[in-house]
Amino acid sequence: MNNSNFNIGFVAITHYQLGEEVLRIIQGITNEAPSMIPVSIDPDQNSEENKQLIKNAIKSFNNKDAIIILSDFYGATPSNLCQEFLKKGKIEMITGCNMPIVLKASTLKKHTSIEETVHFLMDYGKLNIRNHP
Questions:
Q1: pLDDT tens digits, residue range 91-115?
Q2: What's the total number of domains in the chain?
Q3: Is the N end or the C end of the chain the one with fewer CB atoms within 10 Å?
């Protein structure tokens, strides 16, 4: 990946406290606080309240060139609530995130573009899914 000064903010939007726990694990691995904001979605909570949590997280990155949302499942409540916030080239989402994707996203220091970063993270996540007999 080419090094550049393109700044991307990352938001982990997951069911319940999954995002917070994943970031806690990453902090334990790296000994650094991840530069990512977790948003915990309770599917039983009012959707407008959940959308406000997402909106607040996105607003906190107003100094970034772009934002990548990392969501746990495609088609589930967290990813569905994000749809209205997505803007090609500015706010994009990767669904089905695994630990390697979140770890790599939280430790990336330089980015070239949102598109390249999204593809890099998706490829990285796929590469780290293995079968061990």
A1: 999 999 999 999 999 988 888 899 9
A2: 1
A3: C
